[in-house]
Amino acid sequence: MQSFTLRRQLLLAGLLGCTLLLGACDRNTPPSFHGNDVTGASIGKDFRLTDPDGKERTLADFRGKVVAVFFGYTQCPDVCPTALSRAVEVKRLLGKDDAERLQVVFITVDPERDTPEVLKAYTAAFDPTFLGLYGTPERTAETARSFAAMYRKVPTGSSYSMDHTASSYIYDPQGRLRLQLAHALGAQEYAADIRTLLKSR
Known about the structure:
Belongs to the SCO1/2 family. Keywords: Copper, Signal. This is SCO family protein. It comes from Massilia phyllostachyos. The protein is α+β, with helices and mostly antiparallel strands. The chain has 2 domains: 30 residues; 163 residues, Glutaredoxin (3-Layer(aba) Sandwich), CATH 3.40.30.10. The chain is 40% helix and 22% strand. The strands form 3 sheets. It has a 6-stranded mixed sheet. Strands 2-3 form a two-stranded antiparallel sheet. Helix 4 links the parallel strand 5 and strand 6. Helix 2 packs across helix 6. The longest helix is centred in the first third of the chain and has 27 residues. The protein is globular. The N and C termini lie far apart (51 Å).
């Protein structure tokens, strides 16, 4: 009888130990994302660009929010409108409170044509809180390189288009680059990953 009781106590102790161990693992397990986790990467440490009102902007301006950075240009025929339309849907999926903690930043790779007035009208057509940023051609190239983002001018008749990286770069509320989200992902996946970051510490 004592042997049975002892075995039972040992079994219960083992189960309790496993439960505690699993609980500890849960706390230490990094969050799962739909996008590419780039936490700790050396890219995208910051940017220093100008908004349409002439104010210089850096990541520090958005501390406390998740920041979604996208490179594009206003005459983009498909990728950019799709990305910004998806961002509108992401805000809807997040709900009012969480949506207010998301800042969408659109960095133009075509500062020659994307004047402050054009840039402001373009982003506002999707959402008045979306912020377009621009720099000199040299500053634009420097910023893109810091993100390992690509863009190039492609002649089209008497004008040109721009090939460019279509991924979005996502920062957590502490200003750390955490994710690179592929253009192929949908609004549901974007919203889920952003919601996870909003809960992170």
